[in-house]
Amino acid sequence: MIELIINILIILVNVSAVLNVLLILKVFFGTSIKLTNRILLFVGGLYFVVNIAIGIIPGMLPFLTLIVFAFMVVSIFVLSQEKRISNCFLAIPAALMYVQWGSMFKLVERLVGLDKFVYHMPEMDVTVSTILPDYILLAIMIVLMNKVNKELLATKFTKAEGIIITIICIIYPVVVAFFNYLDGQINHVLFSPFWLIVMILINVAVIYSVAHRKKAAYYKKVANNQRQQFQAEYDYFKDYKENNVDIIKFRHDFNNHMLVIKGMFEKGQFDRANEYIEKLSAATGGLKKTYVTGHEILDMILKSKAAAMEEAGIDFSMEGNLTALDFMEDVDACILFSNIIDNAIEANLNVSESQEIKRYIKLSVKTVNKMIYIQLSNPCGEDKDAKVNKTNGDVHGIGLQNVKEIVEKYEGQMDAEKEEEYVVKLCFGIK
Q1: Buried-most residue among 27, 110, 291, 371 (CB within 10 A)?
Q2: Nearest 5°: phi and psi at 344?
Q3: What is the DSSP letter of 122?
Q4: What average pLDDT does this structure show over 397-411?
Q5: Residues 349 and 390: beta-carbon distance below 8 Å
């Protein structure tokens, strides 16, 4: 009976191992793996069935390691929302981090003397560190996934940082084996607890440095986003002030202009009056446009981009309004609209005069059944056959990764299409 219970616990440990690697990829490495409690339960249940099948079918046990690896790779590939191949490669350092966690528990077990309690089975010896670490790690990872800010979890390591972590995880078991060897050679009573504590502290330091680095990168990104919003607001109020000065000047001289024109008409100087009105129109035409979209942040962004659009001959038009988007934080709205407007302006600049294509940006907003649908379109230009997403070094879509993160934060949907024109479609539930 005890052996049956232990076998079930070991199978659950195997299940936890797969889930832990997936969670390490998401929580520590910030990979775009779609994981929820329901998905974890489904993957865990499926792998539990696979383990039972391996134990029942004769001759399958020798292939257990290969089956586990294949199951993990397929799970990562299926659950990844993007960069599937690179996520599969990241499974290697994630698995090494998982192994390092188990090694640390084994050291703790030895330090406190729990390694003396062993249950001997035909295939293996079972101790506390055989079962408990996986369950503890799984519980910690699930709490982190559900409680920690999603944007913080999505913060990724650089390639250099990923390589450093991988090297540390590879070196760690080698160092443990070396100290185990020295422990057998040195009979001093303090040596064993000393190196055990040192190795545990190294583990803790690695985990702390990873968490600290992710927090630092996240807050740097938040600061940059805040700076972007403040810059947009500064540009808006700067333009507003300049525009107001021009309006005040014009109003101040308006009566005088009217008197002059009236005098010309009274004297029959119609051509001169007409010329005067044309010059006056040209002067007032320099006043900057005011955009009213129903969303203050987008108004600010369009105001700050007005000069660039006018200089490039880009015609901006909008249908509907964005009043229903008031649930979105100003910083996020700024990132969202700044990026898609900048992309649209950039794409328009790729339209040469020889193409005889009108430069335009069309924004369409519809609100239906507590859903808001936003669509922004612009011409393709000379790079019509280029890819939509520029986050991987392609031609169009700088900053679309930031847009995707905002969309994911508000549980929305995003689609970017390229046919005769670029079209970015966004959809959010109204809260």
Answers
A1: 27
A2: -65, -40
A3: S
A4: 75
A5: no
